[in-house]
Each structure stands twice: as structure tokens, then as C-alpha cells.
Write a structure and sequence with these properties.
There is one protein chain. This protein is of the alpha/beta class. The chain folds into two domains: about 170 residues, Aspartate Aminotransferase, domain 1 (Alpha-Beta Complex); about 250 residues, Aspartate Aminotransferase, domain 2 (3-Layer(aba) Sandwich). It has 16 helices and 14 strands. A five-stranded mixed beta sheet has the order 2-8-7-6-5, sandwiched between helices. It has a three-stranded antiparallel beta sheet with strand order 9-12-11. Strand 3, helix 5 and strand 4 form a beta-alpha-beta unit. Helix 3 runs parallel beside helix 11.
């Protein structure tokens, strides 16, 4: 484990193009919050100074990726860009059958709709929001089986994305015949961007295949997970990210991916498998919902950019900087005693809203309250991952009440991150004055995207 440092990581790139950003005045930010009904998803991008809402699709593409866009062969069927994309994914993962999709949730839709039936159970280390919803919409039950350390924000356990293999074995034994697939999300987004170890992946794979159950990955942040394996797992330091990836993928029967994360693109994803019959069922759905199998809802030029991005995401200099940025902002917050999920994850800092605002009851939404205040203080947009996102009905209690500061790839510099840390610090200094938030309206599912709130 690397020790703390307040020195920022040096960017392994030069900046060729810039985009102007503007900080609204405090009065303008308050007006923006009111117009958005205190839901940061409803803010316009012009109203946001530093946008840490998500790292999905918000990366800066490289010069090689922009050049790749000019190679677009927009043929409806059989585009050469698809062949390049297909060769890249197969070479990376070893999965023989794959279908491009416009993003990860489309891959989830195609995958789960082709596999699940009512009454099924789908274990995962921790489901994220759309994964969980796709499972439910197909009549199945999502179960989280992550290790207990994942629920302790102060624990320094290095692999909080690990599956609890004892829990998994009990599920497969007690629910025999009801589990058509076991998944693991790399990294564990819901629990703080935390990685799973190769040893744990090997054990999960063994348990699944002994029980005759397919094992699939949500591989959207697989390169970050492989980076942590390289840094933290014994005997892995001399291996490349590609080599570690090959070991990971050899354990699985397939994967879904939002390439808007470790594909370094603004749009795109895929679903891949070793099961030819499942592939054929998914291909039929893909044609109905996404498009022909050689473009899958994307402009063909996006397939070319995705192929380049999947390669660039394995660069160790890039990953050193990527994870170093997260560690840097974590060190700044640690210096102030501000509580967040330890150790820092791969794609963002997750503030522990429950410890940050211990006087705000869960029914008064401490996570949403904190995210609102961070925007109010400095124009920084974050997202709640707690009772609003994962609570059931009127029950706002969840084991983790977090606010995620997701760092877009290759977008912000160290001075931006220092500004974010200073903004959070100022909210921390007046935290005792915060009283909470009420949800005034919400949809039945995925309510965090569209809900309206009111300050108490």
C-alpha cells in the first residue's frame, strides 16, 4: 500500500484543446438548485463548475482516438471498423462471441432479457443501479454477496470488491436451480470503486463451475481492477495489465461492458460470451433494440475510437496517473479528517455521508443533503449513493450512505482536484448547520435520476 502524499501526480499527457468553464455566483447557484428541484441530475452543464457526477462517458479522448473517428466506415453491415473492434475485444478477453451496444445498460438489457425468467436469483458482489433494475425488470431477484469489509468505510482491506465465497456457496446450495448466472462488478462501484483480487475471482469461478452456473463479469472498470491486482496482490507486480486481464477473463464465461469507462469513449459498450446459443438469442434482441450486429446502435467511427481506447486504458503511465489522482484528493481530505471510504478506489472518492453528517437521520437523506451542499458551496456536482439510489420505497436506510466524487479520465488537473477538496473542506467546517432534505416526488424505479427534493 502506498503511503500518503500531498504532491499531485504529474499528467502523462500534454493538453492540446481546452474547454472554458465558469463558476456561477452563490446567488446563481442557489437559483440553479431551485430550478433543478435540488436534484443535481437536473442541472445544466453550464451551471456546473467541476463535474464529478460520473466518470461514464465523460473522459477526454486522445489524439489517436480523434484520428480514429476519421476512419469511420459507415456501412450498415460488415463495416471494417467492426472488424477492428472485434479483433481488439477478442484479443483482450478471449471471448469468441460479442455484440456491440450503444452503452453498458443496453448490454445489460440484451444479456438479462436473454437469460432470466421470473423467480431467478442473480448474485453479484454488489449490483449497481441499472444492473439491479434490469434483473428486477426480468422478474428476478438481485442479491449482493460482497465481503463484510465492504460495509466498513474505515477498513483498509485492499480488496473490498471481493465476493463472500461462503455466502455464494450457500446461495447456490439453498437456491439450487434458481441461479442462472453469477456476476461480479469490476471494480465494485456501489461500494467505493473497490477492486476484487485475482485469488477471489479464481475461487468464485471454481464455485460457479462446480455448481454448473455460468460466471459473468461487469468489466466496465476492469483495467483499474487489474491495476490494483498488480499493486496489491502478491506475485503480480511484474505482470502487465493485459496479462492480468487475460487471467481474469479466462475465469469467466462472458461479460458486459460500458466502454464509457475503461474504453475511454463518450459512447459505446458490448456484451461478450463463450455460449454460442446465448449469443444467438442476444443477437436477435440486439437487431430489434440496437441495430445490426456489426454496429449495435453506434456510428461505426465510434467502434474505431473504442478499439483505440480499450488499448490505451491498459497503459501503465495512464493508470498510475488515473489512480494517483483519486489517491491525491483522498490525501487532501484525510489531512482534514474528512470521512470517506478507505482505501481510495479506482475512479473516485466516496464520502461517508453518514459519518460526515451523523446528526442527520437517514430519513432526512444525509447523502443527498451533502451532495446539494457541495454544489451550493463551490459549483461541484457529485452524486448520492445511498438511501435515494438504493432504498426501497419509503425506507431510506441502506448499509452505506455515500456521496461519490467520480473523476473523469484525462479531464481535470491537480488544481481542479485541490479546489474540490477545498470545497468539501468548507462544507465540513459548517456541517453542524445542515439539517437534511425531503424527497417531494419520485418515480417507482431508478428514482435518483428524476426525483424532486426540498431542503428541510
Amino acid at each position: 500500500m502506498e503511503g500518503p502524499t500531498l504532491l499531485p501526480p504529474v499528467e502523462p499527457f500534454r493538453i492540446k484543446v481546452v474547454e472554458a468553464i465558469h463558476l456561477l455566483s452563490p446567488v446563481e447557484r442557489e437559483q440553479a438548485l431551485k430550478r433543478a428541484h435540488y436534484n443535481l441530475f437536473n442541472l445544466s452543464s453550464e451551471e456546473v463548475y467541476i463535474d464529478l457526477l460520473t466518470d461514464s462517458g465523460t473522459s477526454a479522448m486522445s489524439d489517436r482516438q480523434w484520428a480514429a473517428l476519421m476512419l469511420g466506415d459507415e456501412s450498415y453491415a460488415g463495416s471494417r471498423n467492426f472488424r477492428r473492434f472485434e479483433q481488439t475485444v477478442k484479443g483482450l478477453t478471449g471471448f469468441p462471441y460479442l455484440l456491440p451496444t450503444h452503452q453498458g445498460r443496453a448490454a445489460e438489457h440484451i444479456f438479462f432479457s436473454s437469460l432470466l425468467k421470473r423467480g431467478d436469483i442473480v448474485p453479484n458482489n454488489m449490483h449497481f443501479d441499472t444492473t439491479q433494475e434490469h434483473v428486477r425488470r426480468n422478474g428476478a431477484v438481485p442479491l449482493n454477496a460482497v465481503v463484510r469489509e465492504a460495509y466498513d468505510p474505515r477498513s483498509e482491506y485492499p480488496f473490498k470488491g471481493n465476493m463472500d465465497t461462503g455466502v455464494l456457496e450457500r446461495i447456490l446450495r439453498d437456491e439450487k436451480g434458481k441461479v442462472p448466472v453469477v456476476m461480479m462488478t469490476l471494480t465494485n462501484n456501489t461500494g467505493g470503486g473497490q477492486p476484487a483480487s485475482l485469488k477471489n475471482l479464481e475461487e468464485v469461478s471454481r464455485i460457479c463451475h462446480t455448481a454448473g452456473v455460468p460466471f459473468y463479469l461487469d468489466m466496465c472498470r476492469w483495467a483499474e481492477n487489474a491495476y490494483f491486482i498488480r499493486k496489491r496482490e502478491e506475485g503480480m507486480a511484474s505482470k502487465s495489465i493485459r496479462e492480468i486481464g487475460a487471467e481474469i477473463f479466462a475465469l469467466a464465461d462472458g461479460a458486459t461492458m460500458s466502454a464509457k469507462k475503461d474504453g475511454l469513449v463518450n459512447i459505446g459498450g458490448f456484451v461478450a460470451t463463450r455460449d454460442e446459443k446465448l449469443f444467438e438469442r442476444m443477437r436477435e434482441l440486439l437487431i430489434v433494440y440496437e441495430g445490426f450486429p456489426t454496429y449495435g446502435g453506434l456510428a461505426r467511427r465510434d467502434l474505431e475510437a473504442m478499439a483505440v481506447g480499450l488499448e490505451e486504458a491498459m497503459d501503465i503511465d495512464y493508470l498510475d496517473h488515473r489512480v494517483g489522482q483519486v489517491r491525491y484528493i483522498g490525501d487532501l481530505l484525510d489531512a482534514e479528517g474528512i470521512p470517506f471510504v478507505h482505501p481510495p478506489g479506482g475512479h473516485g472518492i466516496y464520502l461517508d455521508a453518514g459519518a460526515f453528517l451523523p446528526h442527520v437521520p437517514r430519513e432526512n437523506l444525509p447523502g443527498q443533503t451533502l451532495s446539494i451542499e457541495i454544489y451550493r458551496e463551490g459549483g461541484v456536482r457529485t452524486v448520492e449513493i445511498g438511501g435515494v439510489m438504493f432504498g426501497e420505497g419509503k425506507d431510506m436506510s441502506t448499509r452505506l450512505e455515500l456521496v461519490r466524487l467520480a473523476i473523469p479520465r484525462r479531464v481535470y488537473t491537480a488544481s481542479h482536484l485541490a479546489y474540490v477538496a477545498e470545497t468539501v473542506k468548507r462544507v465540513w467546517e459548517r456541517r453542524d448547520n445542515l439539517r437534511g432534505t425531503r424527497m417531494s416526488s419520485a418515480s417507482e424505479s431508478l428514482r435518483h435520476f428524476t426525483a424532486h427534493f426540498e431542503p428541510l
